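Honest question from a wet-lab person: if I give you the sequences of every part of a complex, can you actually get the arrangement of the whole thing, not just the pieces? Trying it with mine:
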Amino acid sequence: MDNPEVVLEVLDLVKRFDGLVAVDHLNFKVRRGKIHALIGPNGAGKTTTVNMITGENPQTEGDVLFEGKSISGRPVYARAQMGIGRTFQNIKLFSAMTVTENLMIGGQSKTTQSLLKYLADFRSARKEERHLREKAKEVLNFIGMYQYRDEIVNNLAYGRQKMTELGRTLMGEPKLILLDEPAAGLNPSERKEFIEIIQKVFETGVDMFLIEHNMDVVMNLSHDITVLNFGCKIAEGNPKEILVNEEVISAYLGEGYRRKMAKGAEGNA
Amino acid sequence: MKTARRNQYLWMGALFVFLALVPLFADNNYYITILNQMVINMIVVFGLNFITGLTGQMNLGTAGIYAIGAYTSALLSKNFGLSPWLTMIASVCAGFLLGRGLGYPSLKMKGVYLSLTTLAFSEIVRIFATNLIDITGGTQGLKSIPRFSVGWIALDTNTKYFYFILVVAIAMCLLSIRITDSKWGREFRAVKDNQDAIESLGLDIRRIKIRAFTLAAMYGAFGGALYAHFNGYITSLSFTTDLSINYVIILMVGGIGNILGNMIGSIVVTLLPELLRFLGDYYQITYCILVLASALFLPDGLISLYGKVMGVFNKRSVAEGGE
Ligand SMILES: Nc1ncnc2c1ncn2[C@@H]1O[C@H](COP(=O)(O)OP(=O)(O)O)[C@@H](O)[C@H]1O
Ligand SMILES: [Mg+2]
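Yes, you can. This is the full assembly:
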C-alpha cells in the first residue's frame, strides 16, 4: 500500500455544508519532493480541502492518506504532530505576543517536559526552554526575520506577519506544509521574497502543498497542479499542461493569460 | 521588556514586605482578620488567573471549589482527627480532581455557556452543603475546626496564622510566576489569544484548558482549606455565587492575567467594603459603582495605571536623555 513516492493522497473527498457541496469527489496525490499547487477561482473549495486534510473541518465522505496511512478521524493536533504543518489564508497568529514567542509555541509540541517534572526540576526545563529559543532564532535567521524577534506581532506589517506564520509552522519540523494563499496581499518585493523562502524551505526537504492565485508564483514554484472549480477537479498536470488546458483557461485563467504566457512559457516547467 | 518584568517582581516583593509589616503597627484583631482574608483571596485569585486571566475562560465556579476545599479539610481534620497538614493536602487533591472534572465540560463551551455551567456547579455544591446537614452542618455550619502548628510554633493567634499564610502566599506567587513564564504559561496565553491556531501546531487544546482549570481548582481548594482553619467555623451561607463573582471582580480590578495585578486586586477589593463601611446603607451601591467605573475606565485593571505611569516616566527620561 505505502507508496514512498506519495506523501499525501486524498480519495473521493466530499464536503457538504448543509445543501452546498463545497468539494465533490476530489482525488489527487502529492508527490514527495515536489511542490504541488491547488488553484481555482474563489469559492472553488481550496481552503475547504486544506481543512479536511488538517482535520480542522473533516470531510463528509472519502479518505485522507498521509504517508500511506489513513488519518481520517484523527484530531487536528495529532495530524500536526505527524508532520502536517499549515499556514492560514487569514493569518492566525498570537497577536499580543512577540515574534519569538509565536515561534516558540510552534515548536512546543516537540518538547518533552511535563509540568510536574518542571516543578520538581527547573534546570532541565530551563535547558529545554533555552533550546527552543535557540531554535526560534535559527528559524528567524532562515526566514530573514531575526531583526523583528522582539516585536509584538500586532505591530508588524502584514507581510511580516505572513512570514512569522510560516516561521511558526517551520518550528514544528513538518514533513509537508499546506500554504493557503501565502502571497495574497503581499507587494511585489515581499512576494518575491516569499517565493525565495518557500523555495529555500523546499530545498531542506519539506514537501509543499500550495494554494495560490498569483499565476506567476504558481508557475515559478510548482511541479504539479490540480485545478478546482465549484468543488470539482477540472484538470491536473504540470504547469505546461495546465496553461494550455482549455477548460482551465475558460474557468479560471482567462484568454488574456494565455496570450501573456504564450511568450514566456518556454522558460518554466 | 526584561526590566519591566523585574520591576514587577520588585513591586510584588515590596507588597509582601508591606503586608508583613502591617501587624506591627496595627495589632488589632479586626485588621488582622481582614489581612488574613486578603491573603487567602490572593491565593485563590493566583489560581483563577490561570484559567480566566491567562487562558481567557470565564469561571464562576470558584465558590464551589473553595467550599469543597474548606469542607474537605475541615471534615477530615475534625471528624477523623487527622493533622490539618494532611487534610489540606487532601483538599488540594480534591481540587485537582475537580479541575479535571470541571475542565471537561469547559472544552465544548465558550462564553455565556461556560459561565453558566461553572456557576451551576458552584450552586450545586452550595445546595449539597446546605442540605447534607448531618455531614456539613448545613447553614448552621461546622464549628471548632482545629488550627495547627508549624514545627513548635502553634498558630494559635490570628497574627501567627497570618504570617503562616503570608509565607504560603509567597510560595504560591512564586509557583505562579514559574508556571506563567514557562511553556505552559505561553500555551495558556496562546489559547486566549487565538484558539484556532493552537491545534494546527500539534498542541492539544483540551489538555491545555484542563491544565489551567486544574491549577485554578487546586489553588482555590487550598484557599478554602486555609480559610476553614483560619475561621474555625464554616457555613454553606458563605459559599454563594457572590463569592465567585467577587473573585472575578478581584481579577478584573487588579488586571487580568497579571500576577502583580492579582495582588493589587486582592488588596483593594478586600479593603474596599471596610473602607466604605461608613457609608452605611449606601455602601453596596457605592461599591458596585466603583467596580463598574473600574471596568469602564480601567478595562485592563489597576495594573494598567502602573504601566501608564511608568510609560510617562520612561518617555520623560528618554526625552531628557535626548537633550
Ligand atoms: N464553514 C462553512 N460553512 C458553510 N459554507 C462554507 C464554509 N466554509 C466554506 N464554505 C463554502 O464552501 C465553498 C468553498 O469555500 P472555500 O473552500 O473557502 O473556497 P476557496 O478557498 O477555494 O476560495 C464556498 O462556497 C464557501 O462559501
Ligand atoms: Mg480560500
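Two things worth pointing out. Chain B touches chain A through 24 residues (CB under 8 Å). Residues 318-323 of chain B have pLDDT under 50 and may be disordered.
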